[in-house]
Amino acid sequence: MTGVRCMLMRGGTSKGAYFLAGDLPADPAERDDLLLRIMGTPDPRQIDGLGGAQPVTSKVAIVSAATGDSHDVDYLFLQLGVEEPTVSDRQTCGNLLAGVGQFAVERGLVAAGPERTSVRVRLLNTGSIAVATFPTPRGEVDYRGGTAISGVPGTAAPVELDFTGTEGSVCGSLLPTGHVRDDVGGLEVSCVDNGMPVVVARAADLGISGYEPAAELAADTALAARIDALRTEAGKLMGLGDVGGSSVPKTTLVAAPRDGGAICTRTFIPVKPHPSIGVLGAVSVVTAVLLDGAVGSELLVVPPAGAPVEVEHPSGKLAVAIEFDGPRVRRSTILRTARKLFDGTVFPRS
Description:
The protein is α+β, with helices and mostly antiparallel strands. The chain contains five helices and 17 strands. It has an eight-stranded mixed barrel.
């Protein structure tokens, strides 16, 4: 049996398999078939592969050296299905991004600095650039640290993710429908793309409080059907076409905060509840509720000037800082952590 060189990493609140592009087949169809067999898809348990039986643990990062001077490495994100044999590149993943810089250093694509290293990453799914900065004492990646993030036990080294050029990176504009607020199937929504296409709606408008645990939401089949209908229609309005087999747009239901944050969220991928919230999904949601007249803006508890917006989610909070230049988004910053779980050879299902 032929194995493939692989590093399994936790990035933020996700977990995925990281590969050098050169270690995978160049043909996309052959590559995707291999990755499905590595991940153990299709199978609701993914018992015969690396997958963890949920979308946030069925992810792949493919990294290669950059060919130009504008950035250091290229990062392609692939979302693999769990029960269905699907591989999607229609979105990126800011959580797995938190481990891309360290992976690049460990694989020799980027030289480490004496104390800290910043890696400029081009997100191939969207074309935008992110800068990941993390500790490299004595020129080596150190995953240990005292930073805690909600949804992950323990602490690890901080990873600062600084995003630019994410506005409209998937749909072509920050407001893909051309409006701050739309009516989709009788529901008021705001459709925003600041690195991740997201449909924002009030939780109350779908008959829930917005404070339910993810497991309770997962058992609500009627809610899942409404979420699917909402995102399908909104996807057309956002210029994404038929999104039936895609994980975008994400749907985030918002409610007033109740744990000291600025806004409370429940996110679905595409109809399964997210145990927390994605990095760029959070960036798009915060961007939305900061816009005058957007759905959910009336629920936002505006933080003090200069302070980040704390997004409440089922596992805790995520702080997002957005800088506007007039009506345009200048940059977004989020703090994450990452950890190497194993580095070695993975053997795909035959």
